[in-house]
Amino acid sequence: MSAIAPPKVSRRRFLQGSAASAGSLVVGFHVPFLGSAHAQGSAAASAEINAWVVVKPDDTVVVRIARSEMGQGTLTGLAQLVAEELECNWARVTTEYPTPGQNLARNRVWGNFSTGGSRGIRESQDYVRKGGAIARMMLVQAAAEQWKVPVAECTVDKGVITHGPSKRTISYGKVATAAAGLTPPAAGTIKLKDPKDWKIVGKRLARLDTVDKTTGRQIYGMDLNMPGMLNAAIVACPVFGGKVKGYDEAGVMKRPGVKKVVKVGDNAVAVVADTWWRAKTALDALKVEWDEGPNAKLSSESFAAILKAGLDAKDAVVGNQVGDAPAAIAASANKVEAVYSYPHQNHACMEVMNATARYTPDKCEVWTPTQNGEAALAAASEASGLPNTKCEVYKIHLGGGFGRRGATHDWVRQVVAIAKEMPGTPVKLIWTREEDMAQGKYHPVTQCKLTAGLDKDGNITGLAMRISGQSILAGLFPQNIKDGKDPVVFQGLNAPGPEASIGYTFPTLLVDHAMRNPHVPPGFWRGVNLNQNAIYLECFIDEIAHATRQDPLALRRKLMASSPKHLAVLNAVAEKAGWDKPAPKGVFRGLAQTMGFGSYVAACAEVSVSDAGVLKIHRIVAATDCGHAVNPQQIEAQVEGSFAYGLSAALYGECTVKDGRIVQSNFHDYPPVRMADMPPVETVVMPSGGFWGGVGEPTIAVAAPAVLNAIFAATGKRIRDLPLKNHSLKKA
Fold it and tell me: Domain 300-344+442-726, what fold?
């Protein structure tokens, strides 16, 4: 019960504690900046039933969500789950964020704040549903006690409680205060609905945050404004591992509006001014001398050579093994071999990194878009030198995250360091796009050597996959490396199981990894290692099909006979795309499938390539089985967005390194897919039930391999390294 119900602390005590901890500035859950009178007045008018549910006198239900909203619909989906068990009126539902400081003060009653790995719904669903069920039981009990009738005689629908025998009714808002004073029910009495009885979950309901985003009412981090606020622009050494050697601030301090030049850590310099533009232009004029350190001569070419050597090195750790694949391949009548590679990529969020901080010796507050409020709180605490209890982070909706705003919070540390130099003054730090491109946490660079053994009849006898390249965990969480193994490297290639498993059955199999870490810092980039692993495996399966003169769908079906859920999504896209029928003249098809983040996905791409080598992607058919579908409309939107992101990566996404620094600087040399080039995406949502899978990330992984396989069908050219912009597609 402790993981569900909040600690036994009165609502009044909690509110008093929250107000006291906020110092002179009281901030509401979902509004970045509120005066104390507004915040306290609003709180006093509401009744907290439990940590997840607040009911107002007008029957408005406020659902508190710890996970961050960054366009994926998590707020709406989790609110649907709570509302389903609460039996409230969906038209009266809204949401708000608890803060990480409040979470810690209440023994982490809201659980994990991290929003990444497509975990928001699938890892929260159980306890938030129980939170809704508990609140419903308490509200009904309060009504029964008011009427002096048995609880069993009462029913509830859309937030209205009815006493069956007497036909009396009362709304949630009228009994909320009484319900808030009741003892929560025992854990053993909580029974969640059977999915077949869902009325709100599974429905195509409109997002709760859409209106504010379309009207401009939604506040993002870059919009935030506070009385007396100053603005900061920053530049860090462009070579990772370099330091500030010196700078001359005398000239820029005379510029209008400039307040201070601040050295931030050992590798960055910031200018603080009354407006951001004045801070930025002063920073441009500031002459900074860098000590570029030992990495100043490194390049993408030098990384590639190191990774290539790793393809045949002996120092590799095994991720998945069946039998003795090397021996089986060596004894085979024939073999197929190929080497693929995948580049560094930047998250390139539309909203660049930003945060606002106010520091005093007794309190450090930060307002920022973040995928993990608790990680942001830890960063604020470390940078300020104050304990967590004297810090607070107020989450703001994100203008894109994709993993960049999750595991690391370098921009939070920076803004706190700057604010410490100006105690009591709010300071807003906004990176330039160029700084965002130069100081990212990049998708890891890897190469992969694949070898398949074939018998005289063309049957696969064994498959070996050697991955050589960067480890995300080694860069971010080295403590999670066990016996030299980063388990994240093997996403989509794991043994059969509930998370990122391979869908094919081979007589023998060896998947291993030779860790090679360049100085470019890695990060969790949307889809993570599933992206390149799906390309490597799915394109190589096509190579085997071509080499053995088999239909790519038929070969996959044969290899996936023991993986029915993998096979189901593959069959779904093949059927909808009309794989067994001729494509329109000049149009060619490619397939791909994978399993990751708890879900099964597949895609069929239809493309044409002109005689001049111009690629046109005509359509994408995509199937997703995520177990339970909380909101099919949101799933469709996420799948479409996944292809926009995945195709951008496949066509253009490449960060190269020269002289130790990232070459690309903005969208002119790191472009996304334009609307004119985005194909229609036909989504097949096929929840099979019985499990909770993710949505935001798995589908991105099949975008590139489906297109690459279609390009081969169209041109006879096998593209084994991305992005496509580096290749001529003129027919072979």
Answer: Aldehyde Oxidoreductase; domain 4 (3.30.365)
